[in-house]
Amino acid sequence: MEWKLEQNGVASSPAALTGSAKAVFRTLAFSGPSTRPQIGAVLGLSRPTMSAAIAELERLGYVEMIGMVQGPLGRRAVQYRIGPGAGHVIAVDAGSTHVRLRVSTLDRRLLYSHVYRLPVRQFVMNEEISRAVAGQVAAALAQAQPEWGPLRALGIAVPTRVVGPGGDAEASRQNVVFTAFRPPSGVAVVLENNVNCAAVAERYYGAAEGEETFAYIQIGLKIGMGLMLGGQLVRGRSGAAGEIGHLSFPLAPGMEPQAGEVERYLGTESLMVRVRADWPVDAGPPPGDTAELLFLAERGNQAAQRHVDRHAADIGAIVATCVSVVDPGLVVLGGGFGASPLLLPRVRETVNRLSYAAEIRSSLLGADATVLGIERLAIERALSAALGEDA
Amino acid sequence: MEWKLEQNGVASSPAALTGSAKAVFRTLAFSGPSTRPQIGAVLGLSRPTMSAAIAELERLGYVEMIGMVQGPLGRRAVQYRIGPGAGHVIAVDAGSTHVRLRVSTLDRRLLYSHVYRLPVRQFVMNEEISRAVAGQVAAALAQAQPEWGPLRALGIAVPTRVVGPGGDAEASRQNVVFTAFRPPSGVAVVLENNVNCAAVAERYYGAAEGEETFAYIQIGLKIGMGLMLGGQLVRGRSGAAGEIGHLSFPLAPGMEPQAGEVERYLGTESLMVRVRADWPVDAGPPPGDTAELLFLAERGNQAAQRHVDRHAADIGAIVATCVSVVDPGLVVLGGGFGASPLLLPRVRETVNRLSYAAEIRSSLLGADATVLGIERLAIERALSAALGEDA
DNA sequence: CATTCAGCGTTAGGCATCTTAACTAACAAA
DNA sequence: TTTGTTAGTTAAGATGCCTAACGCTGAATG
What residues does the HTH marR-type domain cover (chains A, B) (predicted)? Predict the structure, then answer.
């Protein structure tokens, strides 16, 4: 085999790695620093094969030695981690109030991060958000150090649905993020819905750690679900899987269901309207937002507790619907309102009454969930790119 | 490598086939009779590799020559198909009114089939059905011919949910099918929910042929959904995915949802109750069952059309719910009532109003869908068994 | 301090599974 | 009969893994 030579005469990344070398690279990325015997045991590879794999990866700068580890007995083993040649990724959460950005190596060592607060809350994906993304990415690119290696992938979490290749990207508004922002050329771009990203993060680092099958349901200003089945994110035919905010409502004999009513009914705006309309005069001033409502409920305020409980029951009915359709076994509740553990008892009671048994947990990751999820997806793409498995 | 010898000295199936031989075997099973160049082109294998693979399979009797095929030019090629050594499968649809049974080779050549009508309709999985299955399987086993080869798998479609390994098989009632029936020992048994089986059949032979992502929704006495996402049947954590008959209902502000009400409301029994209660005196005698109702509607009977239309709208609302949750892109309607094309216009209109765009089609397979689906699943298991990939 | 032993890493050799290249075989059309 | 095309076989080689055996390096031991 002959190497393809670039103009400057430097051999371009051959990317003709053996299967074992690829597996070792992925293991190092996902499990962190490890010794050869550790990786070999996990992957079932012999010591000679490990030697060859590490040699291949070291030649490309994909891994580097970082020290020695002494077991209780015998010679100590060399410890490796992902090297500078493997490069880095940029992950961006293009949210409606903040743009969160992380730059990391493929084994998730943080190189740079920044949170930018939008001057005005945006209610849909628009050019304002696109401009903010452009600015934050430019700032990150300006920070780049030589030892970061090449930028392998840029992940962006967007609040729209995202269609796969061949889908109608116009209808989904997913490309609005690019109106004022042009990603660096030659870099793989990963676009994913923000709720799906949060679900990914909960799976790897949060309340669903290690779970292959679960649903992540976000309840805040908007309602959405990220569905993980058998370790695979479910996107549906046109990226609309989990758009439960668009569920029709009400469903009852003789009543005419309306599209999207669930979001309007369960979203925090309409909740607060009902709270204010039905707040006892002797219960002090009504809460200004859901955080205050939850705070009052936690402190024992009866009116707040009543509203939280009623809303939890409504949420439970929607969760039960999702559970009946896909039987995820585990539901993680997230979002500004949904992540509150105050909801758990009533949601659990409602779901188990209306549907099959499902465990209900509160999110553990808070506002970082989305950016951590898109980081993970960008890293997965970057690994494929570095290993020449794009095609 | 040494062959493990059986007591009679005949070499036991070594089952140490090369990857290419396994791929060739699967291709022959799913694509039917083919020549070596055809298979090689599909799998991207060279001619020497094809030679070796065919030789391996022929030695085991897994494939056999069936003739020569002449192209427009050049030497003619030998055509092969699955051979007797590959064996056969038994597929059983343990339904509430009939037990349908098919015996087939792994490339779906029908060896024997029988439909047994239960004396009395059964409303749940019970010993009566189990006895019928036992009888029908015994009859099939009695018919077995030497040239059928070994029985590799027995598939049974049951009207209960089916939990995976490690699930609570007691709670699902799936094992009731074995109360009066003991499957032949040493044969792989495949148990699957009947609606899921019908979905599999629609995917390979019916209205969803070639589709990787769709939902099959069955509307008859009971309501159920089979979900296919990315070519994988979705079973959920405890086999309850698609149990939309258990959806809670009604969902409306101030109303208390009840578990399982969707089935009671959308099932054909309650439909006919409403039809009879609301049948004009001048419209002739009311229909006795849904088949008559559909017949009258097709003939232009206004009362029948009104009821069909209203029920189609209700079905559309449930379909829209499923579409909003998983975005299958395509929904196939099946079952005694659901398969009628009369429903299509109103279901389409309702779904597209309440949810994302989804294509709606009527089932093409009728009552055979379930047994064809379990046959396919049994064949897939049989292929793995024959290739020694069980573990 | 020398010995022993466990575990790490390398070298040598082998095997399984694929490939390409080159050949023979069989057929239709010229 | 010749020619070109396709089917199938044989030979040789590339790849990617393995096991076996041996040297290296540490801690524990006498």
Answer: 17-64
